[in-house]
Amino acid sequence: MKKIVLIVNLLLLLAVFGNAQTTPATTTPATTTHLKKDGTPDKRFKENKTPPPQHLKKDGTPDKRFKENKTTTSKTSTPATTTTPATTPKKN
């Protein structure tokens, strides 16, 4: 009889500890906004910062005068081979 009670207690203990970790301990909201005391967004945090505006011309195309609109092209420069004309020594 003692063995049956011991086995039942062990099974109950395993069932309790097996289910103990199924729920998360704390739930945090996915999007957190950091606000100042007056209710405006705090710009020190990344999620509250706005990206810099893109400079456009009147027709809507990017203005190439600004660095963020320039396309970087990789220039493959070959070393210039300069040929020097053959010189003859001067005679005095």
DSSP strand count: 0
Regarding quaternary structure, what we see is single chain
The geometry reads as elongated
Portion in beta strands: under 5%
Given helix and strand content, the structural type is: mainly alpha
Mean pLDDT: 78
Largest sheet at a glance?
A: none
**Radius of gyration (Å):** 37 Å
Q: What is the first-to-last residue Cα distance?
A: 130 Å
Provide the low-confidence segments as ranges: none
Helix content: 10-25%
Following the backbone from N to C, one meets helices and strands in this order, namely: H
Number of helices: 1
Characteristic key phrases:
single chain, 92 residues, mainly alpha
Summarize the structure.
The protein is mostly helical and 92 residues long.
Give a written overview of the molecule.
With 92 residues, the protein is mainly α. Helices cover 18% and strands 0% of the residues. It is built from 1 helix and no strands. The chain has one helix at 2-18. The longest helix is centred in the first third of the chain and has 17 residues, at 2-18. It is elongated. The N and C termini lie far apart (130 Å). The mean pLDDT is 78.
List the helices and strands and how they pair.
Elements: H1 2-18
